[in-house]
């Protein structure tokens, strides 16, 4: 199949192949292709190129696996190939650039904004037309965050003006749990109907998928993603909040609390009544602040329970636990601030208190599992924790609530280990 190479993607990891590439594979009408660039390591580009950029997408449901071959990627380049990057972003055939670079890719010390500016400068020099840059990362208002990062990285006033008038930055909300592919996953492909023979880089994902995209392309050509189930809306904010506060927030809670209680996976932690109760409390607090109909929120919660309980999606808590210093402010602190602004007497909900306390104990009692440059150190107290994620909330009631939650967690963890714990102190 001949595909129009109209999309350039930066950060072609497993999620992008399970989500963006899968949706693009399913559109009706003109077939679009993706030219992929790795974020850092060149190995993914080499592995994809070795099999003509085709790969197997394994959908892992509770009752078994199904496989399909995805051929949306038309070429894969290492991230270091600056010449190819500039050429492709400048190409008139390219009208969409998408990114999965994690939250860290939008910080001032990241190389991503400068790389985008480099490509856009080449496009302007070539007389290229309008183009859309679409973030597929878990950030509220990710389109605006991306636009600000790009403009702040632009030193040339003329280029800055051209970007402001020529480049669109639609926001999006994406969702599909995609655990890391294991050696066993690769070996099992040989017995799975529909799999690509000899595939060394398959992707394993859950049946559920969602993409809500801001309808802000302003005449820019794009795939007919809506024919593949993408929801085009004027404002993605409520859907971003729903995803961040319900799915991502509970993922963080399950990761930190689950690890402390001896669990390894989301499914195992969700099966623990102590974790499940804390998740429901967190969801209750988020639901009270979500600007969405109650029935839609209830449906989202029910879907998450089913997704988290899928025993065949081995989503490890250690994988989820990384980067809490960037994730917690948008996954739980935003909800807590809104709660207190709406009702100053509401206090800290038990879900939020448990999540903050679990992160504190994760950083201080199991530092060998911490993968987060911004996390407080192993000798940190509750004030150090709040200084990282919510310095404005370092108040007596918040400190008391988080400290009490930490004591409860330590007691539960000590019981699980058969030991007596003396608690924690602010």
Unreliable parts: 419-426
Instruction: Name the shape in a single word.
Output: globular
Strand content: 5-15%
- CATH level-4 homologous superfamily of the largest domain: NAD(P)-binding Rossmann-like Domain
The second-level CATH architecture of the largest domain is: 3-Layer(aba) Sandwich
Compute the number of structural domains. Answer: 2
Please describe the biggest sheet, giving its number of strands, its sense, and whether it closes into a barrel.
Answer: 6 strands, parallel
- Can you tell me the CATH topology of the largest domain? Rossmann fold
What's the CATH class of the largest domain, please? Alpha Beta
Polypeptide structure, described:
- The chain has 426 residues and is α/β, with parallel strands linked by helices.
- Helices cover 46% and strands 14% of the residues.
- The chain contains 17 helices and twelve strands.
- A six-stranded parallel β-sheet has the order 5-2-1-6-7-8. The protein has a three-stranded mixed β-sheet with strand order 4-3-10.
- The longest helix has 24 residues, at 237-260.
- The radius of gyration is 22 Å and the shape is globular.
- Residues 6-226 form the Mannitol dehydrogenase N-terminal domain.
- Belongs to the mannitol dehydrogenase family.
- This is Mannitol-1-phosphate 5-dehydrogenase.
